[in-house]
Design a protein that fits this description.
The chain is an alpha/beta fold. It folds into 4 domains: 4-64, no CATH class; 73-408, 3-Layer(aba) Sandwich (Rossmann fold); 432-604 and 653-696, 3-Layer(aba) Sandwich (Rossmann fold), CATH 3.40.50; 706-835, Multifunctional 2-oxoglutarate metabolism enzyme, C-terminal domain (Rossmann fold, 3-Layer(aba) Sandwich), CATH 3.40.50. The chain is built from 27 helices and 26 strands. It has an 8-stranded mixed sheet, with helices on both faces. α3 runs antiparallel to α12, α14 (432-442) packs across α16 and α25 crosses α26 (788-798).
Length: 838
Amino acid sequence: MAQESDMDRVFKLPSTTFIGGKENALPLREILKRLEQTYCRHIGAEYMFINSLEQCNWIRQRLETPGIMDLTAEQKRLVLARLTRSHGFESFLAKKWSSEKRFGLEGCEMLIPAMKTVIDKSTELGVESIVMGMPHRGRLNVLANVCRKPLHQLFTQFSGLEAADEGSGDVKYHLGTYIERLNRVTNKNIRLAVVANPSHLETVDPMAQGKTRAEQFYRGDGEGKKVMSLLLHGDAAFAGQGVVFETMHLSELPDYTTHGTVHIVANNQIGFTTDPRFSRSSPYCTDVARVVNAPIFHVNADDPESVIHVCNMAAEWRATFHKDVVIDLVCYRRYGHNELDEPMFTQPLMYRKIKETKPVLFKYSEQLLKEGIVTEAEVKDVAEKYDKICEEALDRAKKETHIKYKDWIDSPWSGFFEGKDPLKLNPTGVIEDTLVHIGKRFSSPPPNAADFVIHRGIERILKTRMELVDQRIVDWALGEAMAFGSLLKEGIHVRLSGQDVERGTFSHRHHVLHHQTVDKATYRPLCNLYPDQAPYTVCNSSLSEYGVLGFEVGYSLTNPNALVIWEAQFGDFANTAQCIMDQILSSGQAKWVRQTGITLYLPHGMEGQGPEHSSARLERFLQMSSDDPDYFPPESDDFAIRQLHDINWIVANPTTPANLFHILRRQIALPFRKPLILMTPKSLLRHPEARSSFDEMVDGTEFKRIIPDAGPASENPDGVQKLIFCTGKVYFDVKKAIIGKNLESKIALTRVEQLTPFPFDLIKAECSKYANASVAWCQEEHKNQGAWTYVQPRFETTTSGQKHVAYIGRPVAASTATGSKVQYLKELNAFLEDATSL
């Protein structure tokens, strides 16, 4: 143990420390003093778990080198000015709208200078565009003082005005924005986007990452030097929300990485009203970041200069190593969860202390006054100037008559909507030569087949495909490949992502061929169709639904001229991504005037595989559709596209490869973008009847919203006794049962391929054609599931109540499917008997 006499002994410093600066030996007293300065004040650094000596030394050097944290007088004045604006904005809102929720930053005002420092340093290091995701705490202040969104636009959100454009709008602290401006510190242009986010606090994380990745892709920024993401989190949500972990685990995956994200946790040491002792099991709220070896810098938000140093370090770390880094901004929350809340109910001791705590602006002003950096007059002048700016913006806001939600779009698609007829659909058929070329390339082994050993099973699959192409027929995999290939030929980027998408869950796709004797050697036929084609990305994701679907939605927001598809392994698995569907896809355009053309593949259908492998919950998507069951739109030539224009999303259950081909191409051919929810098949992937001729895909053909009966029943409609409508795979089961009983001339069977928007006009024509027939809806799902509750009132509207529509299918059930094969067949036979009885 060191004695007092040892304190002045000089010790040689080891190479593992940088506390000596240029000196390599120091007295023990000085060594201890310098170590305490570094590690026992306002910064706590977690980095020793990182298994790279280079990275650990990089951090040590920036923490331990003497004087490295010192700021110049000019830098200190800049921090004070930024802190004044951050504090002044919250004070102004509190003064003008005292009874409004705004989720203010009081207690964490240093967040604004912190973010601006990360942005300044990153811009200096070459970044040109920053995508930000954040919850609602401090969002308005970030929009005002980081993005420099015009203040009058912010203040109109408090005025209770109606919207001037489409959309139901959202509360002000959920909205996004997009700004291009000059960064005055670096004198470089910077683009800032804040992604809109619902109250599901961390939902925005994967979306911001997907948006960042897409922007990097379109800019050719393969190393993430020009585009980066900056994610803000609350402490309780960072620890508590599983999507944070899912997003973290995308950070190093080749097709999902954004080459490093700066995370800032506004750690006010409390969640909603839950004490940290009851809201997490780990010592720190940031411990989830340790799984990806991200350094974590805990810093006291009441020490502005330490915060600035940590932020500069974080930005440099990201630019140097292109890995994630976390800043844990340890602060407090001056008021309750929102401004109308009483925090003393649940945290009386904490809030007694908070009441006695001076705001950081006052503490820092006093420090700089003592140091002689600023005068009292300067401090007062900066505050008054900002208050005057706010007052002038409020006066301007009072003259506004409507809220313009188009001011709040986080990634505007410049030029996409301009000059287009919003009701003109471009053709989706393509010439036969194109289909043949794509089909042959897709069905061929790699060009260097002699050197590239493919699996024998793949050889057989390719041979079968080539035979189909020669016969001018496509199965499901070929129909999909031709949709992708023809879009790639037209310069449209296609991205397919999800679990097992490269091979296909049901081993039908095989878009990536693997060399059987050489590791990592692969061949992607769809990347080798044309010399000047658009890029095709097909990538197996991590075993995540919520995070990966969020990522792909973010990706789709960046550029409308791309087909972005997420495929669930089974449609049932999409349950864990329901938040994205509810909060972003079904309502995103209404809330945020934010369109996306993302497509969801959800394998759906009863094959006796039991619950969790049968139902994509078709009923949920239909229930969230915004078409009115009681309203039959006026019939006109543009009926179909007008419906698509007015709906919130499209839900379809195609049964032919040609219809899949057209509906995928239609996603790009539309003059607007809507999410497409596709119930995709399992057993139909190889069903001999689920095939299409090239004739259904060539020029002049299009997507069929319904496929009418084309058999004997259609030739003598007056003699038909029963008209059955159905959707999806059950068509083939019912058709087989009808043929088995020789009832083809008595029962007409029509497939509804697009469920929403509902094809009122075509259903009406079918009912009129078979005027003498009774009408029924047949489905394989249980009565309280599937499409029945959606279609029933719409049939009523279509037939003006003149026709009773009977239900054929399974009875109600709590589970989506039985796990017993015997029970499954019993149920199937029962409703097929019902379908074929006259």
